[in-house]
Design goal:
Helices cover 14% and strands 50% of the residues. With 254 residues, the chain is mainly beta. A hairpin with a 4-residue loop joins strand 7 and strand 8. About 5% of the residues have low confidence. The chain is built from 3 helices and 13 strands; from the N terminus they run H-E-E-E-E-E-H-H-E-E-E-E-E-E-E-E.
């Protein structure tokens, strides 16, 4: 059966499917390195994400952040991010990138903001499934993403590539690879500014029968200069991220 035929069948089945909530666990690790490749710190943020039909409000619960001072050491106690408990919103581009969207978040809660932006990216890519053709990548229209009043992220070229049809969670899924290299980033936080380059990539398993994400991965490397207001000169920083976005059976979600 051809790829286009599979997508057409999936679209028809989606219209017949009854609305139901989707629950996911999103785990993201951050590894911070100095210019010599020594790991300075690692952090792990974990949260549960609930979504319904496209356009419905989404909701975050059980978000925690843990830190460790070495690459191989275990994480310290997970700290609940109470400002995100029950955080609900409509996942619209014009809202989640606006300067007042995260007004209830602590100023340095970059990892929590990224949970919101990364899940929006996954959902956006899943909606583009019918544009992805076998044999050649689909180039997503690029845009400069505002960091909610704290800088911007400029894409060079986002590509979605059809890999094939595989099974995940007992669902027949389209496996889609995405990549976006040589992007530029300018990010401002209280007392500091980061300017550099970002490369990110990953895979997504999208159920053909529903168009819903069953699993996704995300890898990113950011290299640049970090200027702290109290320091005379910027320092080189290198941040590596790796994460997994996994669907939870409703009965197993907390």
């Amino acid at each position: 059966m051809t790829q286009n035929r599979l997508i057409a069948i999936a679209a028809a089945l989606t219209l017949l499917a009854a609305p139901h909530p989707r629950q996911y666990r999103f785990t993201m690790e951050y590894f911070n390195f100095d210019a010599k490749g020594q790991c300075l710190q690692k952090q792990r943020i974990v949260g549960e994400y609930t979504a319904g039909e496209p356009g419905d409000d989404v909701r975050w619960t059980h978000v925690t952040l843990a830190t460790a001072d070495s690459l191989t050491g275990g994480y310290a106690r997970e700290e609940p991010q109470t400002y995100m408990e029950g955080f609900s919103y409509s996942p619209a581009r014009e809202r989640i990138f606006s300067s007042d969207f995260f007004k209830a978040f602590p100023p340095m809660a970059t990892q929590a903001r990224n949970l919101v932006w990364d899940t929006f990216m996954f959902d956006t890519f899943a909606l583009d499934l019918n544009r992805v053709k076998a044999g050649s990548p689909y180039h997503v229209p690029a845009w400069a993403v505002p960091f909610a009043g704290a800088g911007s992220f400029t894409h060079t070229d986002i590509q979605l590539t059809w890999v094939g049809v595989v099974e995940r969670n007992k669902q027949e899924c389209a496996l889609i690879r995405y990549e976006a290299f040589f992007n530029t980033i300018e990010h401002e936080l209280p007392g500091m500014q980061l300017v550099g380059r970002s490369d990110y990539w990953g895979d997504m398993w999208v159920a053909l029968a529903s168009g819903e994400i069953e699993y996704a991965t995300l890898y990113e490397e950011v290299a640049g200069e970090l200027r702290v207001s109290a320091q005379a000169a910027p320092r080189v920083v290198n941040v590596v991220r790796k994460g997994a976005f996994e669907r939870l059976p409703i009965a197993n979600a907390r």
